[in-house]
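Lay summary. Proteins are chains of building blocks that fold into shapes, and those shapes determine what they do. In this project we predict the shape from the chain. Here is one chain we studied, written as its sequence of building blocks.
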Amino acid sequence: MASSAARFSNQIRYFMLQTAKPAPTDSEFRIVRIAAPLRQSVVESIRNAITTGHFAPGERLTEKELCEMIGVSRTIVREALRQLESEGLIDVVPHRGPVVAKVSLAQAEQIYQVRKELEGLAAELFAQRASEDQVKELKALLKELKASNAADDRVTRLSIKNRFYACLLRGAGNDALRQVFDLLNTRVTLLRVTSLLQKGRLQKSLSELTALVDAIATGDAKAARSAAEAHVTNAADAALKVLRESGE
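And here is the predicted shape, written in a compact code that computers can read:
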């Protein structure tokens, strides 16, 4: 009988096969050696491969495969893996090596409980404090997010989603809130992959974010908070259902 980790991995791969565009290929994670320091580029590439579901929770990561996928030396890959371990995206298991971190059902429930409060507060503060330019930026990022969904570009979509929340937190104008949110971000990103395993969740997520931005655009702080909390509640329902079914 397959282990729960194997079943969960298979669920993610099944989800990828059901989408209109094939899952990102290894070549899409190959880095271009410009601008950012090489090690940071490698970290970002492996992080993207994990958070887009290219590597499933519990899956073993081999240096050889990563070197071939990204096109760099083992030394650089090892350094990148150490950083991702410190971020909580990778666990090093004795006699097995680095594996993609998993979030248990209990951990997920706790994370979503905190995330709901944080995002609700961020949305409320953004509606109250954000500048006109920040509101325009948030609207533009939502538009980009919808375009990436239409193109089924997972790597780009992840980047835009991170920029969307970064904008939301900047506009909220509360450094303590942003710092706490950053501490949870790695686990939240892993859970996004899980929640999207539920059929139709991606489109619903975009509708929920549209409602959030619409409330912000009208300056309705209470409605913005309500929309943000509803978005997290629905994401939690989707992710927790997948985790329960997988026996995590």
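What the prediction tells us: The chain is about 70% helix and 5% strand.
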